[in-house]
Amino acid sequence: xxxxxxxxxxxxxxxxxxxxxxxxxxxxxxxxxxxxxxxxxxxxxxxxxxxxxxxxxxxxxxxxxxxxxxxxxxxxxxxxxxxxxxxxxxxxxxxxxxxxxxxxxx
Amino acid sequence: xxxxxxxxxxxxxxxxxxxxxxxxxxxxxxxxxxxxxxxxxxxxxxxxxxxxxxxxxxxxxxxxxxxxxxxxxxxxxxxxxxxxxxxxxxxxxxxxxxxxxxxxxxxxxxxxxxxxxxxxxxxxxxxxxxxxxxxxxxxxxxxxxxxxxxxxxxxxxxxxxxxxxxxxxxxxxxxxxxxxxxxxxxxxxxxxxxxxxxxxxxxxxxxxxxxxxxxxxxxxxxxxxxxxxxxxxxxxxxxxxxxxxxxxxxxxxxxxxxxxxxxxxxxxxxxxxxxxxxxxxxxxxxxxxxxxxxxxxxxxxxxxxxxxxxxxxxxxxxxxxxxxxxxxxxxxxxxxxxxxxxxxxxxxxxxxxxxxxxxxxxxxxxxxxxxxxxxxxxxxxxxxxxxxxxxxxxxxxxxxxxxxxxxxxxxxxxxxxxxxxxxxxxxxxxxxxxxxxxxxxxxxxxxxxxxxxxxxxxxxxxxxxxxxxxxxxxxxxxxxxxxxxxxxxxxxxxxxxxxxxxxxxxxxxxxxxxxxxxxxxxxxxxxxxxxxxxxxxxxxxxxxxxxxxxxxxxxxxxxxxxxxxxxxxxxxxxxxxxxxxxxxxxxxxxxxxxxxxxxxxxxxxxxxxxxxxxxxxxxxxxxxxxxxxxxxxxxxxxxxxxxxxxxxxxxxxxxxxxxxxxxxxxxxxxxxxxxxxxxxxxxxxxxxxxxxxxxxxxxxxxxxxxxxxxxxxxxxxxxxxxxxxxxxxxxxxxxxxxxxxxxxxxxxxxxxxx
Lengths: 106, 754
Fold this sequence. Notes:
CATH architecture of the domain at 81-322 in chain B: Sandwich
Strand content of chain B: 25-35%
Structural class of chain B: mainly beta
Number of strands of chain B: 46
Shape of chain B: elongated
Largest interface: A-B, 36 and 38 residues
Helix content of chain A: 40-55%
Low-confidence stretches of chain A: none
Distance between the termini of chain B: 69 Å
CATH class of the domain at 81-322 in chain B: Mainly Beta
Oligomer: heterodimer
Shape of chain A: globular
């Protein structure tokens, strides 16, 4: 059976691993989580619209039928890795129902 | 945040490479509401304002076209079809038969699709042989002022199945017969179907416009409509209603003598491959013109699989594949033109279009003056940069791949894109890159620059322009004089064009190479030239420019390779030249034979560094590491944080890397998102990532050619993006500078035999 979920308890260490190093050599379990998170439907997928190359990005998602082609998610970043962490936490919340920052602080 | 930045002004030039004395036209369209715009000329010394780089360096240059122009919107109609000149239109159509083998790819989608028509748009009269809204074969007839009558088989055609499709009309009796005969019938769902009807329409019709794959619509903005998606093979038109036996005979390879007097058109698409001409075998000589480059050299209904070369079995390649999103030339009206001054320095230039919002750019290159064969080049710099316009064409209007749900997982990071990519998402009429699939899912094999190309601008993500700009900025930083030529120039003029120079510099990603380009480079090296290949995944795809149509490139994504789509079986030979397309590696010329390394892996999460090898201490390499004692090279850069990343190449004797080449340094520390190239994966397995697979590495290589010249290869796209780090004061830039200084020097490298 294919694995189609994230376990908010068993997978928490890998979430911690991501928050410490959003890009780089990741453990197999973090790679699994990321592949799952990143394979969501295109219209739900958060993306970064470049406002200033290498300096400033807007969080957007691609629009679905009847929407603008790109929909603002009303968030600006000045650090790429901050964007990666924020999106990871948003997805964690969506998939597990739990606040990642809160879980990691315990 | 409510307002996202938008690009509203776009345009293109009628040439991508211009020489002093040439006249170049610029076409512009305003997509917003600005009433006017200002145009000015810029010389581009770099193309990226990314943090950590050298910044965007634009130099304003005086040009007589500079000034304010009224803004207007110019539209584009995509879709390929066949049209006929006025003197080849049928004088009158009364009774008739129309037939063809067809292979529809989107039956029942997007409305009616015309297979062949002779339609008078002004009077709404004539016939249209078409697929109806449900995808069933139908014939629509109308007399002037009358209501159109359609007879349909009512049975939708299956996608990607061949049919013999025909329709007959007898003017005297009013009898109509429409017939679809599947070549591969399936019980219940794909059986032969026909429909008979009796209609009353006035005829014969005159003033109709004959066409295939679309019909005349009459309007100046949209002269044709009803674009068809799919293949057509052996289309025929006769002046009377033929019976089934005659239709079968007429569907053969040649014009049957017994029917020749009745045949108005008997087209053979297997002739004139690679051109826009479609040849009529009938006595009418009703030759037509294919518009917007539908795909040619396509397998026909009778392709057996016994041979893949259309030159060997031409009668099995009688099909043309039409697409409703094909586009060769947008055919906009010019806003202004410019005669390139005789003293214009060679380089990269842009017309900047300012409508008060985000500026538009039209990029082009000024090459050295043209000369006749044998004519001296005069005094030229010793350095030439080859602008990879084949790459730019391949990536022209590369659309957001985030629409593929797996694209982010594949990349290993959030997708990033710019406002130009957002506009491209909105504008499906701007044509495709060679990375796209057509509306019907088939791969895009032609790309042109005679249309706005939105990712040819500073700071764009989805082309190598930003990285290539760092090479130009590096040359400027060190005060080197240089010329710029383009891939298309090299394809047209070959080695002679390279004769004045000691050293060629490539950009970061010279991925697409024609045979004439390759031969020109080999010729240059054989006369002692030096080549600095500063990229990765170079010299990878064998492509073809067109001999007579300017600015268009063909690729066939053949049987192997890391590729966004795969050519259909039997469609590996390029229509423009008849060459077997696909990877150079599968053509007996792996890039390793030219530059010592060849594509091995790609990944876009991080880039890493190189570590020096023992070969770096070889006396032959001493000049390369002059002033560079570091063990680690390139652990920095704009291109994902290192000099070894994105797409990387390896030294491999089995692929023809020269045995005497020095492997100076090798990358390490790649992640599992740096994945082994498909062509190195004989069968699937798990050891494809950079953590475990020893083939996932970038090799930096140097070798002498044996003719007094030499080659240096960085083996990584990210190399050029590391060069500007800390104002070009770093070990990547120093190595590049050391190599360039020696390569510029006339003193020959050791030759074979001393």
